[in-house]
Structure to design on (227 residues):
């Protein structure tokens, strides 16, 4: 695969050994290239204007600018960067807050390394990743306890926007949605943009939560990726 076609990965973590091991593992896959590593959020935010990755793997607890600081700063920008929060400070109950702050996936550092490529691909292609236990959280918590994300009601969404939203929740890529609805990929992206504007969410994960909260889909209908 040409260098220009590879998914660019950034790693921000203050554990230098972990960063090196993760970088080596990622770079063994021809689909990815680690283009940026930093040991703190402050240094990372100073780099992204000229060297922004496609996917950021971000720790939460760091001394020089925490992961929360990074999420907060990026929420004020129009970046298309996707963020995978990978932390030893992982609690299922934090998932909704992580997604609300702009993360596209939230994982424990205890996951198997072999699981990471599937997560990266899901986030890159679909805009979000949910694991089995996180789906359980959504079933029992998100639809009732998270604050509303949106300024519009679901009645303000068009029929086609709802069609697109339901397929987003099926983890379908833009091309797959386009084929299913017999529209162009560009039109699908337009619908996704309109959905995020109307619902005031920051990413595809937020759209999934919106769909659950507003009973457009049942949490049991969300499709999980095969590992």
């Amino acid at each position: 695969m040409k260098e220009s076609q590879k998914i660019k990965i950034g790693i921000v973590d203050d554990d230098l050994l972990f960063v090196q091991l993760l970088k080596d593992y990622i770079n063994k896959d021809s689909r990815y290239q680690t283009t940026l590593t930093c040991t703190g959020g402050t240094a990372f935010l100073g780099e992204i204007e000229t060297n922004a990755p496609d996917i950021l793997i971000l720790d939460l607890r760091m001394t020089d600018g925490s992961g929360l600081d990074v999420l907060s700063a990026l929420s004020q920008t129009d970046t298309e960067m996707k963020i995978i929060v990978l932390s030893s400070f992982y609690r299922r109950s934090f998932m909704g807050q992580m997604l609300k702050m702009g993360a596209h996936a939230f994982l424990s550092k205890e996951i198997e390394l072999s699981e990471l490529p599937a997560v990266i691909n899901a986030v890159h292609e679909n805009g979000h990743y949910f694991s089995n236990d996180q789906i359980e959280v959504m079933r029992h918590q998100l639809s009732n306890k998270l604050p509303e994300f949106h300024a519009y009601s679901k009645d303000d969404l068009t029929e086609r926007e709802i069609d697109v939203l339901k397929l987003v929740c099926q983890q379908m890529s833009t091309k797959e949605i386009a084929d299913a609805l017999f529209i162009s990929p560009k039109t699908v992206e337009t619908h996704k943009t309109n959905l995020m504007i109307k619902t005031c969410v920051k990413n595809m994960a937020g759209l999934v939560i919106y769909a659950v909260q507003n009973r457009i889909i049942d949490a049991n209908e969300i499709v999980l990726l095969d590992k």
